[in-house]
Write a structure and sequence with these properties.
The chain is of the alpha/beta class. It has helices at residues 18-30, 37-53, 55-66, 70-96, 136-148, 161-174, 187-194, 207-219, 242-254, 274-288, 305-317, 348-351, 367-377, 390-399, 435-440, 455-458; strands spanning 99-101, 114-121, 124-128, 151-155, 180-182, 200-204, 224-227, 233-236, 266-270, 321-324, 328-329, 334-335, 338-341, 358-364, 383-387, 404-407, 421-422, 428-429, 431-432, 442-449. The chain is built from 16 helices and 20 strands. The longest helix has 27 residues, at 70-96. The N and C termini lie far apart (80 Å). The structure holds nicotinamide-adenine-dinucleotide. Nicotinamide-adenine-dinucleotide binds at residues 128-132, 137, 155, 157-159, 186-187, 190-191, 204-206, 209, 212, 227-229, 261, 353, 355, 382, 423, 428. Residues 18-447 form the Aldehyde dehydrogenase domain. InterPro entries: Ald_DH/histidinol_DH (IPR016161), Ald_DH_C (IPR016163), Ald_DH_CS_GLU (IPR029510), Ald_DH_N (IPR016162), Aldehyde_DH_dom (IPR015590), Aldehyde_DH_NAD(P) (IPR012394).
Length: 472
């Protein structure tokens, strides 16, 4: 019998208690209990089991908020976080261990001293999440924060209210709720949180809001990790396996109905193969959705009407030709995976990040032209994808930067939970996942220790100086 699930209606945290919540998390950090490795392991194990026990509520919430299928929710949200917990549990002792420094870091002249790096928790951190992966994108950083020994306040997206409420219950009933708290709400609550002093702010969301967060954090010299979006290019040359490229890139735009920061926004393709590529794209769509995309129980929906209209506007205003998809239904917040053939970087399809199931195809006559266009559209995208010969793929990697890159596929650089992930330039700064999650919330504190017996070797430092003592 299916478990009956009830989710508390969304309720924003009262603004006037936010300072006390932040102060509580800071106070807990000052007790030093989070520095104990066994304590951290217990919290990570509790988080693993909380996700396990809350599966029905989490799946229900994700279906309610984004119409996500259980299949996708399990793979990209719940299983993901549980794997993160296990990875951190398995490796925590090694990550947290002092690192002894010898040659080549310490010159022979100082070899009588002990140098080591202590891995110290930054302190109390704020994690602000977006709506598209409302569970994974706050719990994965939280795994890093717990592993590092920090306390944390989490601010999930208000656009996915059911997930936000389940998260609050899950964290505050299962973890140490003096150390880990959830504040729910939108801009006023985020602003109230940003008025508090944090040891790091971990923000995932749009570049526009990231700028607001970074500016506010700068006022108190608070470090930030910014995981932002961007206009991600895919490059396809004559040497690509076109059928595979079509299927894999379409997959990237069907996951979470394209509400994925890493998926391609535009494809720069050699004009000689564009027609064949479009045929493969249509064939792949037919294969994934034999009864049409709308009838598929697997395809998520757009999060809300505002985003539905934002995406629709890009399609309404394009001067390009819709070559695949194009159907929409506002009552269901449904947008069919859609490809548009364009010939100008000024097209509405290129103007902003689509963050939906739509993308454009731009025919080019050479890889030179493709690289010129891509660097003029977004010099530092979050992702790029290259489908070509080995030499062509290397050229793309050499001549165009990005947060991460995948050769011959869609976003696999960001689909494995234990490899570092992050943006570059205006697609973000800082990285997390795997060991990078631990490092993200850790201060590398160099400690030098000088034994008393070493005094005679070090006495040259004292005044009065004698230049002859410097034996360079
Ligand atoms: P968003 O920037 O609108 O919101 C993110 C968070 O900021 C939310 O918790 C929201 O409540 C808060 N917020 C919104 N406006 C604010 C304001 N004016 N002041 C203070 N706080 C504010 O992002 P979104 O729409 O939820 O998510 C989509 C964006 O996130 C896309 O640009 C996408 O590319 C990006 N994203 C990036 C990654 C990554 O890992 N790099 C992952 C997912 C999404």
């Amino acid at each position: 019998m299916a478990t009956k699930v009830t989710i508390t209606p969304f309720e924003a945290t009262a603004l006037n208690i936010i300072p006390a919540l932040a102060s509580n998390a800071r106070g807990t950090f000052r007790t030093h209990k989070t520095k104990n490795l066994e304590w951290r392991l217990v919290q990570l194990r509790k988080l693993y089991w909380a996700v396990e026990d809350f599966k029905p509520q989490l799946l229900h919430a994700l279906a309610q908020d984004l119409h996500k299928s259980d299949y996708e929710s399990l793979l990209s949200e719940l299983d993901w976080v549980q794997k993160d917990c296990l990875f951190m549990i398995d490796n925590l002792a090694a990550f947290a261990k002092d690192e002894k420094l010898g040659a080549p870091h310490v010159p022979i002249t100082f070899s009588m001293m002990n140098f080591r790096i202590r891995k110290e928790p930054l302190g109390t951190v704020l994690i602000i999440g977006p709506y598209n992966y409302p569970i994974q994108l706050v719990l994965a950083p939280l795994v890093g924060a717990i592993g590092a020994g920090c306390t944390a306040v989490i601010k999930p997206s208000e656009l996915t209210p059911a997930s936000a409420m389940v998260l609050k219950e899950l964290i505050e009933t299962r973890l140490d709720n003096n150390a880990y708290l959830v504040v729910n709400g939108a801009i006023p609550e985020t602003n109230a949180l940003m008025n508090e002093k944090w040891d790091k702010v971990f923000f995932t969301g749009s570049a526009g809001v990231g700028t607001i967060i970074a500016k506010k954090a700068a006022e108190t010299l608070t470090p930030v990790c910014l995981e932002l979006g961007g206009k991600n290019p895919a490059f396809i040359t004559k040497n690509a396996n076109l059928a595979l490229a079509a299927k894999r890139l379409l997959w990237g735009k069907t996951q979470n109905s394209g509400q994925v920061c890493m998926s391609q926004n535009y494809i720069l393709i050699d004009s000689a193969v564009v027609k064949t590529f479009i045929e493969f794209l249509k064939a792949a769509e037919k294969e994934m959705f034999p009864n049409g995309a709308k009838a598929s129980p697997d395809l998520a929906r757009i999060v809300n009407q505002r985003h539905f209209h934002r995406i629709k506007k890009m399609l309404d205003e394009t001067k390009g030709e819709i070559v695949m998809g194009g159907q929409m239904d506002e009552s269901e917040l449904f947008i069919e995976p859609t490809a548009v053939l364009v010939n100008s970087t000024d097209d509405s399809m290129m103007a902003e990040e689509s963050f939906g199931p739509i993308f454009c195809i731009y025919p080019v006559h050479s890889l030179d032209q493709a690289l010129n266009i891509a660097s003029s559209v977004h010099r530092t995208p979050l992702s790029l994808f290259s489908f070509g010969s080995k030499a062509e793929n290397n050229r793309v990697l050499n001549e165009m930067t990005s947060g991460g890159a995948t050769i011959n596929d869609s976003y696999f650089h960001g689909s494995v939970n234990s490899v570092p992930f992050g943006g570059v330039g205006d697609s973000g700064s800082g990285a997390y996942r795997g060991k990078a999650s631990f490092d993200c919330f850790t201060h590398l504190r160099t400690v030098a220790e000088t034994p008393g017996w070493a005094e005679r070797f070090l006495s040259v430092r004292y005044m009065p100086y004698n230049i002859k003592d410097l034996k360079f």
